[in-house]
């Protein structure tokens, strides 16, 4: 067979493209929701962080999860919580933000190593090759743990937080957006430009990422001479 494998490759590429577009659209929509409901999003994320820390303690006590790794996860979520100080704005050079990025990768590595070593020990202790160890978690359980306890909060913060670089500053003022008296505890971070009363909000990092990718695709299209329909008519 010659044609069918090519059809399979083409279908895989198209499926990957559609999946990427679906994820980008979801990130864009979630970022828009956070921009419209900042106070509600901050309350939800704070309660989510506390809930996951409580879940970590329950897993440590009931299912005998390692105390050291559990402590690392709880400390990591406390660091994530520190990024909520000026929600939804964050400075990319903030030590808490940089520590959060490092802790995400560290948590993923140590928990992946824990489950991998636990599975290896379970198979080594089998009396027969045909035995099936019953004390190892399934793939669904491990994936669910990573999705909820390791990646959920960092992903939610990525969608919700707005980098200071994506925030338009006020005219004649160098004060970071979201730290002035106008931001207050509401987290709206609305600023006016030149006293004209026009308000601007920060752009979420996920939304900025999607816009940059779309902008890059547009630049590539312009380089190859591809034009939009309205530009062709002009």
From TrEMBL:
Stretches the record annotates as Disordered: 172-204
Subcellular localization: Membrane
Keywords from the UniProt entry: Membrane, Transmembrane, Transmembrane helix
Domain of life (superkingdom): Eukaryota
Biased composition (Gly residues): 179-188
GO biological process: endoplasmic reticulum to Golgi vesicle-mediated transport
InterPro entries according to UniProt: Svp26/Tex261
TM regions (residue ranges): 7-29, 49-80, 92-111, 142-161
Cited PANTHER family: PROTEIN TEX261, TEX261 PROTEIN
Identification of the protein by name: Transmembrane adaptor Erv26
């Amino acid at each position: 067979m010659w044609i069918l494998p090519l059809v399979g490759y083409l279908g895989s590429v198209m499926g990957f493209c559609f999946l990427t577009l679906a994820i980008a659209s979801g990130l864009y929509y979630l970022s828009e929701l956070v921009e419209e409901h900042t106070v509600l999003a901050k309350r939800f994320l704070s309660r989510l962080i506390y809930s996951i820390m409580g879940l970590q303690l329950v897993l440590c006590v009931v299912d005998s999860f390692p105390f050291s790794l559990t402590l690392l996860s709880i400390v990591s979520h406390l660091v994530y919580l520190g990024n909520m100080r000026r929600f939804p704005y964050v400075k990319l050079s903030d030590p808490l933000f940089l520590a959060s990025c490092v802790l995400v990768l560290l948590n993923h590595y140590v928990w992946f190593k824990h489950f991998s070593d636990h599975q290896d020990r379970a198979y080594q202790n089998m009396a027969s090759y045909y035995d099936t160890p019953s004390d190892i978690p399934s793939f669904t359980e491990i994936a669910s743990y990573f999705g909820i306890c390791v990646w959920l909060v960092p992903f939610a913060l990525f969608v919700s937080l707005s980098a200071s670089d994506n925030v338009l500053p006020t005219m004649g003022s160098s004060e970071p957006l979201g730290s002035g008296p106008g931001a207050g505890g509401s987290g709206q971070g609305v600023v006016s430009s030149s006293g004209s009363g026009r308000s601007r909000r920060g752009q979420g990092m996920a939304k900025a990422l999607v816009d940059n990718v779309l902008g890059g695709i547009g630049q590539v299209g312009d380089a190859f001479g591809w034009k939009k329909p309205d530009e062709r008519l002009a």
